[in-house]
Amino acid sequence: MPMFEVKQAAVAPSHASAYQDEILPKVSRTFALTIPQLPLALRGVVANAYLLCRIADTIEDEPVFSAQQKGQYETAFVDAVTGRSDAQRFAADITPKLSPATSDSERELLSRLPLVLEVTRTFNGTQRAAIVECLTIMSQGMHDFQRVVGLHGLPTQRDMDRYCYCVAGVVGEMLTKLLIDFEPELAPRHATLMRLAISFGQGLQMTNILKDQWEDRSHGVCWLPQDVFARHGVQLQELRAGQQDVNYAKAMIELIGIAHAHLCRAVEYTLIVPARHAGFRRFCLWSIGLAVLTLRNLQDRLDFASGSEVKVSRTAVAQTISLTRLTDKYDPAVRWLFAAAARKLPLTPLAPEWGEPRQTGHAWPRRRTTHLDELPHPRNAKDAHTL
């Protein structure tokens, strides 16, 4: 029976829920830290959604798979999630083909997909539809970009925006749908929340791209925008770690400023959530805080040669957690804390389309031209499957 016809169960099977709790810290220390802050009714569904997104990412990152194989496996994965194909058969087929480049924890997670889906099938229809829509757009988007990316980078800032939407903005949309399902009082703010959620994802993803650019290059890819660097006289394919010049620094400052602008919108997203849901606010604020500190580290060390050189220290992480715990219920205090943390960061104005409502049927952000075909933005489960 397809997943969308399964009625909501009272609780997930205990062994499946226990496995979800066990595997989460093995595949993400960050989310293992932030997800437990969520209201109890959201913890299980957000953890489950993250694990499924991690599986999609694992498939796309597997170096031994050709572009065609990745596309086939991503489609088969979504079919398994929706119940259109057998999840056990899919997991048994793909897991032995993974290379040593895939971590043991990721390999285990993929092999236990049927157990993860036991939890998924207990969610209500809105929750399941949000997860599948996110996975479908993410899988297709990652695959399309992986086919064209190289050390030359992405052609324009808008292409970078498009990539960030496919891998992070859609997650923001999904989380917002789960949030409104949990707190219907927020339904009148749906359009604003969705727009800010995409910006939220953009800010976090841009921060990761800037931090991890040298590791990405070692794998033959670059997610930086050619047009921004070319405007400062830099050719991305000629970059070498530790050999950056002042022109590279200028381009990086511009991109740090863009990421900062998106994180400002992430704060506004967070503060729309009622203060009584302080756990959800902490879930957001910890991620925002760590991103701001990473941007500060990048700005202070533009000659860095690896992500480890700009990684946020454990002490700074602990301080962020402590400060947000003290302020998360008070809007002025949250704004003051963010402004204080980001006060020395550049702030680059965002393109006009970031302030416009998203058009139905088109993925965000709106674009006039692109080197890729537009991906449709599915509005229901059937559309999601045929994207």
Explained architecture:
- The chain contains 17 helices and no strands.
- With 387 residues, the chain is an all-alpha fold.
- α3 (40-61) runs parallel beside α8 and α4 (67-82) runs antiparallel to α8 (125-146).
- Mean pLDDT is 88; it is low at 1-10 and 360-387.
Provide a compact summary of the structure.
This protein has helices spanning 14-27, 29-34, 40-61, 67-82, 87-94, 104-111, 113-120, 125-146, 157-182, 190-211, 213-218, 226-231, 246-272, 278-300, 314-327, 331-342, 381-386.
Task: Describe how the helices and strands are arranged.
Layout: H1 14-27, H2 29-34, H3 40-61, H4 67-82, H5 87-94, H6 104-111, H7 113-120, H8 125-146, H9 157-182, H10 190-211, H11 213-218, H12 226-231, H13 246-272, H14 278-300, H15 314-327, H16 331-342, H17 381-386
Helix pairs in contact: 1-3, 1-7, 3-6, 3-7, 3-8, 3-9, 4-5, 4-8, 8-9, 9-10, 10-13, 10-14, 13-14, 13-16, 14-15
Radius of gyration: 20 Å
Q: What's the tally of helices?
A: 17
Gap from first CA to last CA: 21 Å
> The biggest beta sheet, please?
none
Give the mean pLDDT.
Answer: 88
The string of secondary-structure elements, in order, is: HHHHHHHHHHHHHHHHH
Contiguous uncertain segments of 5+ residues: 1-10, 360-387
Given the helix and strand composition, which structural class is it?
Answer: mainly alpha
What would the principal axes of the Cα set say about the shape? globular
Helicity, in percent? 55-70%
Count of distinct strands = 0
* Strand coverage percent: under 5%
